[in-house]
C-alpha cells in the first residue's frame, strides 16, 4: 500500500496489487483515503524469485517522477505487510506480521535546482513541491508515533490518515521495532542530516517489551481426533468384554468335560461288573453361575437363589438318570463347541468396524476436505487471472544528476509525455479554494477534539498521575497541530510562489485582502 497525495489533509492510499493501479497515467490510478489494511489485496509468495517479481509488480503501480537529485524518485511512502503462518503442531498455529516501510526521502527545496526548473513547466514544479510537503508530513507522523510509544508505551486510538493509518493496526506492545537510517556526509545536507539524527535518537529511546504470542488451537481437528479415539476405546472395551465371556465359557466346558469323564468311568465300571458301591448315593457337582440376561448361558443350569458368586451343590441321581443326563450333556457340549469355534475364527479388526454414527462423521470429513480442495483450486485460478506475472528487468537508478544527465532528460521527456495531470494549466487555480476549505475543516476537527479533551478532564478533579497523562495527551495534540500547520504553511507558500512566477499579482492581493495568505 502506498501513501501519496498533494495535500496533507487528503493523503490517498493506493492498493499496489490492484490491477487498476498498473495504469501509466496517474489520473487513472484509484486511491482511497480510508482504505482498510485488512481488506487490501493479498498475494501468496512461493519462493525468493517469486517475492522479487511481486515487489517489482507492486512498484510498477506506485508513483515515481524525476527531480533535481533523482531521475526516478519515489513520491510516496510504500508499505509491504507479510502475513506469516507457522504450524507449531498439527493442532496449533501461530500467525504473525512482518511490516516493511519504504519511506520516501525528504528532499525539500534542494531537489529543485535551477537546471531542473528550466527543464520542467511551472505546473510540474508545483506538483513536485506539494508532493514533497506530503512526504515530509508522513515522516512527521512517523515521528509522532515514536514519541507516543516513548512517552505512553502504546499508540493512541486515533487512526489518522496517510502513513499513520497504514501502520496503526500493526503497532502495539507485542511489536519489535527496527529503523534503518541513511545519512548524507555533504555540508549541503547538514540540516536534513541533523534532523535525521534527532529522529534516530527518539526511535532508540522507545522501550517496547514484546510478548510471545500463544498459538491458535485448531479445535475442529482436535475434536475429530478425540472422537475417533473414543470410538476405538469403546470398541476395544466391547472386544475385551466378549473375550472375558469366551474365557468363562471355556472354563465351564473344562469343568463339564471332567464331570463327563467321571460319569463315563462309573458307567464302564458298572457294565464290567466292577463294584460301584450301589448302596452309596452317586453324587455329581454342578457349577451354578449367575449370567446376565444379555449373554447366552450356554446351557448352564441357573440357581435363582444364587448370590452372584460361583458355588456347587450335590445332586442325587441313579444310573438311569445319569445315562440320560450324559446324552443331554453330549449334545449341549457339541453345540457350545461349534458356537465358540466360530467366534474364535473372527478377526480382531472385525471388532473395530465403525458404527453408523462413525461412518457419518468420516463421510462429513471427506466432504469437507473435498470442498476445501475446490476452494484452493478456485483461489489459485483467481490469482492467475489477476495478472501477477513476472516482469523482466527492474528499476535502474542513477545516483546523481551530474553522472547521468542524459538519463534525467529522457525520464523527464517520458514523464511529460505520459502525465496529463501535470500539464493542465489551471491546476493551481482550481485547487486553491478547495485546499483552504479542507484546511479549515481539519482545523475545526482538531479544535473540537481539543474542546472535548478539556471537558472530559477537568484539572480540579484529577490526581497527579491523571494530570501527567493529561499533559502527555495535550503535548501529542500540540505536535499533531504543529505538523498540520507546518504542512499547510508550506502548501500556501508554494502556491504563492507559483502565482508570483506566473504574474498573478492581482490574485495574490485578492487573497491577502481576505486574509487567505
TrEMBL record:
Cellular-component GO terms for this entry: kinesin complex; microtubule
InterPro entries, sorted: Kinesin-like_fam, Kinesin_motor_dom, Kinesin_motor_dom_sf, P-loop_NTPase
Compositional bias per record (Basic and acidic residues), positions renumbered to this chain: 367-381
A GO biological process held by the record: microtubule-based movement
Record flagged with keyword Coiled coil: yes
Coiled-coil blocks: 246-273, 436-470
Region (Disordered), start-end ranges: 367-396
Family annotation (Pfam families): Kinesin
SMART domains: KISc
Keywords: Coiled coil
Domain Kinesin motor span(s) in chain numbering: 1-214
PANTHER family found in the cross-reference section: KINESIN-LIKE PROTEIN KIP2 (PTHR24115:SF545), KINESIN-RELATED (PTHR24115)
Protein name in UniProt: Kinesin motor domain-containing protein
